[in-house]
Amino acid sequence: MGEGTVIGGAGSAGGGARRAEIAANLADVRKRIEAACAAAGRDAAEVTLVAVTKTFPASDVRLLAGLGLTQVAENRDQEAAPKAAATADLPLTWHFVGQLQSNKARSVAGYADVVQSVDRPKLVTALSSAAVRAGRTLRCLVQVSLEEPGENGEPEGRGGVSPSGAVALADAVAEAGGLVLGGVMAVAPLGADPAPAFARLAEVAAAVRAAHPEATDVSAGMSGDLEQAIACGATHVRVGTALLGGRRAIVG
Ligand SMILES: *Cc1c(COP(=O)(O)O)cnc(C)c1O
Q1: For a tag site, which of 152, 170, 199, 203 has the least CB within 10 Å?
Q2: pLDDT more than 90, % of the chain
Q3: Quick check: CB of 117 below 6 Å from ligand 1?
Q4: Containing domain of residue 118, as a range?
């Protein structure tokens, strides 16, 4: 999928105006991160800003890189693969943050540096063999579900292993060839107070670190809740809307 499939894609507008818009948004987001770190008694250098560029054209990725951002994220392989290829000349670290089918592992292992959405053993196996085959090393975060369990005791909603299963999955990543365990990731439940969910994630992150001291990444917080995530120890915030504006519909 190319940029042309993004309805009303911003890439066509005057590049200067779009650059100024993104630069202003970036300054706002950096201020929010600094204020949240100050409030939490943390150093702003402890928090890495990851720009989520889904539905936005490769030209926006290029503008972000020109403004000094190096970390970008996508959630669908069909969109991410061509965008990463179109910006392969830039010094970017690509994060994959969406639900991932095992049969897409090989494609994702070709361009992603970090897979934040590792949620089951089968995906660990698929990513491991894909990384080994490609001669690449993938940093992997275990995605933890912070949803209330459904009637069958399994978490419902947007993916992730239950908190009680996170350490075992982290063990599997740590043992797998071609993969490095980075830490944990979560999305706050929709429509609920994110603070208790992020506090729960902090507990899971500590349990994972107890077994794997090198796994220090805690990816939590998006445009609407990055302050609460930073208060709970997030090391990575994933920000889309606040940087790039409202997402466009995608055809196909
Ligand atoms: C889209 C997305 C984000 C960014 O969300 P915004 O609210 O636009 O900042 C963060 N994390 C994941 C997993 C996403 O899919």
Answers
A1: 152
A2: 85
A3: no
A4: 16-244
Q: Is the minimum distance from the CB of 188 to ligand 1 under 6 angstroms? A: no
pTM (predicted TM-score):
0.92
Residue 142 and residue 170 in contact, taking contact as beta carbons nearer than 8 Å: yes
Q: Is 187 in the pocket of ligand 1 (CB under 6 A)?
A: yes
Number of domains composing the chain: 1
User: What is the model's pLDDT at position 104?
Assistant: 98
Mean pLDDT of 103-119: 98
Residue of minimum CA distance from atom 10 in ligand 1 = 238
Whole-number pLDDT of residue 3: 43
> Residue 169: which of 211, 136, 201, 200 has the closest Cα?
211
Q: Is 239 in the pocket of ligand 1 (CB under 6 A)?
A: yes
CA trace torsion 230, 234, 240, 242 (10° rounding): 10
Could you tell me if residue 251 is inside a domain? no
